[in-house]
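Help!! Second protein's tokens look totally different from the first
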Amino acid sequence: MTQITMVHGAGGTIMNELIKNYVVKYLGGSVADVPLEALDDSAVINGIVLKSDSHVVKPLFFPGGDIGRLAIAGTINDIAVMGGEPLALTCGLVLEEGLAIDDLEIILESMKNTCIEAGVYVITGDTKVVEKGNLGGCIINTSGIGTRNRALDKNIMEVKKYRSFDARWILDSNLREGDKIIVSGTVGDHGLAVLSAQEGYDFGSEIKSDVTPLNKLIQRLLNIGGIVTMKDPTRGGISNSLNELSEKSNVGVWVEEDKIPIRGDVRAACEMLGIDALEVGNEGKVVIGVVSQKAEEVLATLKGTKEGKDAEIIGEAREEFNGVVLRTMVGGKRILAPPIGDPVPRIC
């Protein structure tokens, strides 16, 4: 009998097959504006943006963050990248017997501070306690609800100045020939920070998670306009995100390897461990598709912020091929295939 393995939750092709072949098969079929079958970062029904997210990161505390900050920021970001304006959150705590109350208090304070930072608050929830086992201390489920961002229509009007655009939301399927691809900052930071905490690795520098809520940053970008798609590149990293955009939009994606921002210590750590930084999850970055005429303005705005100071235009959508093609630093070309899964387990 086939059984669930850790790779089924690692954000790559195996997890996507599990979701498509089983979860969507049995739970799909709604008439939502953006339904489960779309497999976007959130769903939309009757103009309401909805997201549910469970967090099982191990360990609970890692350089730059903890499970509490991760839970709040992750759900907010998934709503924001759809063109939604997050309104409120729920919180379900599954606590493992033996978890220190002091640790729980640190986690809850972190959640509170992240809510204040984002301007979005927890308004209801649930708490359960289970016998000591393999939870690693606790699991947190956060769900979020949002409305149509007040700047979304303005953004879409700007897109329509330069090309046709029929979607009402910022969807994975919106990318078209000539659109530029922007990544908002260095990639791989979160996964390597969690891995260092899991395994006790010392990479010779302090690699910190990038976990942060991005709703206010995305609000600024939508006010500039021209954005057609956004993706939260968590499990499977930007490799998985770019392949999802390519597949759902039915267009090729050309990427310049030397334009992808990667911290030197992250690159060195990945090379040492035999890990591809492009497949490592992030929690405070966004992959953005934007019409070419607005790309430089969006990039300049990103670079003027703390969250986007390392942003770069890394490529563009092209119709002459399928999938994602990477031009390497030495001038060659290779297919950037979707990862089987994120190489670092339990990062979110």
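Here's the second one for comparison:
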Amino acid sequence: MKMEIMIKPIVTEKATALTEKRGVYTFRVSPDANKMQIKNAVQGLYGVKVVSVNTMRYDGKRKTRYTRTALLRGKTAAFKKAIVKLAEGETIDFYSNI
């Protein structure tokens, strides 16, 4: 059974600013993935050399919505985020296959 490590790249204003400023890329990854698995997945998918990987865990946030009929309560999913630093001169183009 092969675990799906990479879920999707995070392309927000903050993540794009980090890419331009420091040359790091941000991905949403499986909560079970470790740094070595993330490094190998990025190198295999994009054909680049990864220098370092930093990870962050996010808990799900509680959400409450008031509707006409009832008060709805729920929770967003917990996830893990990886910040990947590439070797000097390497880049990843997320929009190349559109």
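Reply: Different proteins will give different token patterns, so don't panic. The chain is about 20% helix and 40% strand.
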